[in-house]
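Format is chain and fold; as here:
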Amino acid sequence: MSQKDLFRMLAESRLRQKDCSAIRSRSLEKIPQTQDALLREIEQLRDRIRAAGVGQDSLAEKRYIKLLEAKRILDQSHAS
């Protein structure tokens, strides 16, 4: 492998790194919007579950748990 090839690979690597940084920045900008949407749906499901009575709407309860898990993961990724 020649020195020219190494410099080309280095340049390509730096371009990919810039692309990755740009993608990360855009995704970090969207996290608050996603968190807000999750919170709204979590609150709606919680109200629906309370109105029906716990154990009466298993689909809503499963969705509620999945959304709580998704929010926890999103919060953790935003914190790092």
Q: What stands out?
A: The mean pLDDT is 87.
